[in-house]
Amino acid sequence: MSNPHVGLLSFIVFVPALGAAALAFFPKGKDEAIRLFTLATTIVVLVPVLWIALPNNGQSFDIAAASMQKVFALEWIPSFDIQYFMGMDGISFPLVVLTAVICVMAMLASWSITKYVKAYCILFLLLETGMLGVFMALDFFLFYVFWEVMLLPMYFLIGIWGGSRKEYAAIKFFLYTLVGSVLMLIAILMLYFSSDLASLTPEQLVEARADHLPADADDVLKLAAAQDLIDQVNSGEVSGHTFNILALAQMGQHTELFDAPILGCSLQHWAFVLLFIGFIIKVPSVPFHTWLPDAHVEAPTPISMILAGVLLKMGGYGIIRICYPICPHGGYDFAYVVCLIGVVSMVYGALAAMAQTDFKRLVAYSSVSHMGYVVLGLGVWSATAENLYNPYYWNMGIKGAMFQMIGHGVSSAGMFFMVGVVYDRVHHRNLNEFGGLYGRMPLYTALAIGLFFAGLGLPGLCGFIGEVFVVLSVWKFSYLLAVISASVVILTAGYILWAVQRVYLGAEYKGPHEEALVPINLRELTVAATLFVLAIWFGVYPNTVLRYMDSTIDQQVIELTEWTRDVKAVEEEAATEAVETAKDRDAPGLHDRVEIKHGEGTSAAEWTELSVHTNSVKEDLHAFWIGP
Amino acid sequence: MELHQLVAESIADTKASLWPAFGPELILCATILVMLLVKLIPGLRKLDAFLIVLIGSLAALYFAFPLKHFGSSDPLPRYELFTGMLVYDAFTVYMRAFLVFFAVLFALFTRISGIPDRADAVDFYCMVLGAIVGMCLMVSANHLLVVFLAVEMASVPSYALAAMLKGRRESSEAALKYSIYGAGAAGVMLYGISLLAGILGSAHFPTMAAELSQRLPELSPQETMVLVLGGLMTTVGLAFKLSAVPFHFWCPDVFEGASAEVNAFLSVASKGAALALLVRVSLGLGMTHAEVAGPPTPEIQTQHAISTASGALAAPEAALMAVADESLVSSDADHVDTFTFRDSGTDVRHFIGLVIALLAAVTCTFGNLAAYGQTNIKRLLAYSTIAHAGYMMLPIPAALELAGVDPPAAKAAIASLALYMGIYLFMNLGAFAIVAFLRNTLGSEEIADYSGLVRQSPGVAICLATILFSLVGIPPLAGFVGKFAIFASLAEGYVSTGQVYLIVLLILGGLNTVISLFYYLRVIKVMTFESGEDRAPATPYRMLSSLAGLYTALVTAPLILLFVSWESLNNWAQAAMQNLF
Hints:
Largest sheet of chain B: 2 strands, antiparallel
Low-confidence stretches of chain B: 298-342
Structural class of chain A: mainly alpha
Radius of gyration of chain B: 24 Å
Oligomer: heterodimer
Number of helices of chain B: 24
Strand order of the largest sheet of chain A: 1-2
Shape of chain A: globular
Radius of gyration of chain A: 25 Å
Number of strands of chain B: 2
Largest sheet of chain A: 2 strands, antiparallel
Order of helices and strands of chain B: HHHEEHHHHHHHHHHHHHHHHHHHHH
Shape of chain B: globular
């Protein structure tokens, strides 16, 4: 069957790799031609992505559709049930756009790389392929392959074109990420061998796109295809195991396949822990964050932009796409731990940033702090029995976390670029030896201050929306964590304002190479201005980003809330009843049983009202910023 | 029965066994003879020994594939050769094809690298081909004496091959260490074999397996101890050949002393054959197989008599023979029905599985840790070979545990080993080929002398980096496929049987992958990060402008191509297991 999506998504993912292969044939020494060709390749990737983002055309992203779009599945390795299975939805599409845009910006910033330009550009394009593939892969093995494909180019990019401690930073990055990947592989294999497609209903299989029919095919046909698949698995023709992430999510939420007890906890718990560790190494969260300052500082500017702008988001993407849907038991039981890790990262990152004297290291620690918001927002599982299964605040938290990923991608890439601009001129990053740049490079300083304020989370810029959503959402979950996370804003303002004051304000420049401080040139201006405009645009009109995410996140939160009510609460009720029965048996009448009836408090009508209510959050904000 | 009858039947059985089942080995022997005798003919004296070897191995490769079974629904039968000494089944075919294919590539490699030179060529190739014949016996062994014979036949030429570079002190030292160690290990193995054969009354695997599973519940403690001791001693010999810790001490020294060509031979062919032998021994002793058919001839009835005569049989064996009568012309599905599964078989398999698991865990960990301090590339690759032997041993305990519960899954576990071996052939052959070619052009085998290689010959450096990353097991390279398949078999074993040591092995395998990153990355770092100014000026060979470069590309390309499409290799590997037990 010829599925047009195969071509479109494969084009987006593999065009950079083809560009890299073409670059191998370029003659050595033609640096300018190589750079322009690479820039053209990144723009060739950006064009279809933006085309999909624009509304009202043939390939438009359907913002009302909550499930996967542009899905295709081809057989790759049938003997292991591995498929070439890709698609995009509201969670992955904004990240794909972010990747494409940041790669163009980073390539524009790469004119400062002067040695071995050809090798640099080839590795850069291979990196882009890996990043785009991670966000669109729906087969767990394919996801893992793309996840690891990024490591090789990154190692060389940091290790050859990096700063003074580049080898140390490169090997540290590689090792940390590889440990996380190996833990992920163990979890993947355990989930794969515990999975069984025949345990799902045909409706669930269709939901998981296991019917392999195009999205617009008749529902009856799809259900029939799904039933065929179940029959084939039951008769032994086809193995029931699968790497399909959507199917695994259905199994995790609706069946007990992953509840087998291993050493006390269930398989779900262990898989959640292993996957979560793998992802928070990437985010990075304390205590697995120590590779980030070294890697960010030693990497060249464009690579820092990509690291901070895109690579860190993969950790967050993995948590929301894989950890929570497939292992909800783990997510529910460890919710406080997840939020605690988020808050500790926020506080630790901010305090560490305040202590830095290296400009780039300060920005690196600010990344640790900002990504803490992401983990916190994803983890606030407040849709519990005490809150009458109200998904509103968790929904807000996840949307805040997702927005924070996009906003931080823009602002952090911008911050690193600004540091890079001045480092290219004076070749040092010592905060105590700057000052007075305002007078020497006025336009640069204006844009830099704008981007740093975006990082600070000033209302009106992109950093604010994510932070405010996340902080508001934590209130229903834990008052203590909410108070701490709200106070981190003060720390963030502290270190950013202090850095801005030391670098840009003041009367005189106190460091070496004063004569090199020439005003910003056109190429640098393009990058900085674009990021600055994006920061303002997303801050003033966040619906630009939120409109893509709304449906998918709403649906995911509602599914997990229903799971909490139907599965987790039943389990907890059964456990409480067992305890109560035991107590009653021992001392009848001593303990009065207070029955919490399910379904009370959240009827179907109320569910609909709640989901409408979550949509109205963005409308509220819309009304707040733009007017009724 | 009468002597002349016995002799007649023996001749008939031998003739039936020799062709076509034993064909490739015969062709290799004929190649050796031709190579030796061609010197007697005046006109052919100038003929290059390499040509004879190449033609001979290509012919053997052609006959290694039973073409009439390809693409047909007629499955490859399993039968015993030479009155039960060897077994011919799909696994034999796969492993033999692996060894002979390696022989073809190896002949091309040695021709391009220049070692051996014309004077030594005949001796060198004779020993290589002789060792390969021994390895072919190893992969089809069905009798403990054949195990001993084959191990010796494969090892003794290797001792001489290690000393091929006459005049180098390290080569002679390496050969001496290898031969003394090998002789010691062989002696211990023979003692173990004699103990096992004495207790169980036979040295023929199916007979021993039947005896063992039948008598295990009623063995006295002393007999059990002798059995365990015999098993462990036999393992010593196998572990020596596998270079498993703690019987690996010969490996780094031999690899450092011998030339890179011989190292390629030892690390690929020798290890592959040793792993296949381990599979044969563990599954041969652990699985009772009712069928003991001989090679197909018109006189099928008489084969019973011969197999009956060749082992010391008790009454229970006759009952098995009755079952075997019916199962002679059965297909694979019937094999599953007729193999007798008793509880004691599980105990035997569990014990063997634990021993191999322990060996594998220690081997891969120690191999990876010991590679850290190495400065010589050949020594580093020696430790890498040790570690990979450890990885490749990992699916065997999984298969042994799964064999009683889910036979297809157990076969899939051994298939993952076969898949890894196929990929490993290219990885190690490529690594040692590059080392050999760089030795020819740079004159050094120290890692420090590879500094800045990427500036002068980027193609070669990229090929070596690809091979090293593949050895670590990182996508998108084929080495990851092998590791993935092996980890998958361990995970499946754990999920199906609940044996905790399998998940421990999985975690250990994963951690070892991470540990191994360091030392492989150090070589890559030296090649790519450093500028190469402070080493002696010598031009390394370039990929596109020399035969050596083309060979390097030829051997490295499969590592990327196989990743994109490993379905066909996986299907071959799984087909090879169809009648393993």
